[in-house]
Amino acid sequence: MRVFPECCWLAITLVAGVVHAAEPGVTETHIRLGMVNAQTGAASGLGKAMLDGATAVFQEANQRGGIDGRSIELVVADDGYDPDRAISETLRLVEEKQVFALFGNVGTPTTNAVIPIVQEMKVPLVGAFTGAMTLRRPVVHEIINFRASYDDESDALVQYFASRGVKRFGVLYQDDGFGNAVLDGTVRALQRRGLELVAKGSFQRGTTAVKAGLAALIGHDLQAVVMAGPYTPVAAFVREASQAGLKAALSTVSFVGTDSLLQLLGTEGNNIVISQVVPLPDDRQLPIAADCAALLAKHVPAATLSFVSFEGCISATLMVAALRRTGADLTRERLIQSFETFDRLDLGGMRVTLRPDNHQASTAVFLTRIADGKIVPADPGPGAK
């Protein structure tokens, strides 16, 4: 079953339910979840891949009898990676469609925009594809994060280069909440090592106008640049930087959408270092990777297991585990409490922990790089954590 953004009913259901829920979005036969992310536009590859991974897991759960006999129904809305649309679509799903919980948002500016909504309406938001600290510290009671933070990723990238003697760092960042989160995380990582940011350049969300940002980095004798943006502007920057003769090593965080970036750049992206929050998807020795690949092949055969769809699969697996732990008496508050009881829960080779004072399940960061147009592990180098 595939989904098409309309704003998009994805019916992952087995039978139709009679609505008389004690909690919005819960009936005797259904649990209705909402997904608001980019299904169109420059970041659509991220939203669609998150949807693929989640679809595979929720379909499988339904085929196995659902959650205490309730099947999962996922309603998908397209925000186009625009914060204003994220707000309006989230309100529509919560107020009109009466979703029980939100799942799989994509992006910092869009997710930040809906924090007041989930807090005021006490709607759980699970597994957002963003590492922003605004979703983590202080803990937002309604928000459950799977992935490592941008601070975790920035620190791993800085450590990677610093262990190789790099001292002159620059940052190219999208001028919004996401880019600033990576910028701030990089500055903190440098300060922990007695270093300072040498130069920074920015670009506007939704554009590939990166020349001004590149100009701000040229002429500073940079040795490494951390890039913060989705795959389209990052690819544009890589090409512009090559033409301009920028000699610095290039790196970026997981939000770039590694597989989409690789499709755009191929071997032009060789030696770019990319931090990931999930292991290599083709590591079939890892049970969760093998499981997610099999579920995608079964339920979304047109898709392949990418870094983003892998994250969608893992996050959905965590969601299903919490729903099952909550039991038949399903309420929003009880769901959050169930998440908070996970202590080194094994998701198939990845262990996650959540507590009332920690709503980030994983701190794991995996370093990769592009070599010969392929993604390979990056040697963490001396002194790596």
TrEMBL record:
Gene3D superfamilies: 3.40.50.2300
Signal peptide, first to last residue: 1-21
Keyword terms: Amino-acid transport, Signal, Transport
Pfam family, one: Peripla_BP_6
Ranges of residues in domain Leucine-binding protein: 31-373
Top-level taxon of origin: Bacteria
Family matches, as SUPFAM superfamilies: Periplasmic binding protein-like I (SSF53822)
The family this protein is said to belong to: Belongs to the leucine-binding protein family.
Protein name, per record: ABC transporter substrate-binding protein
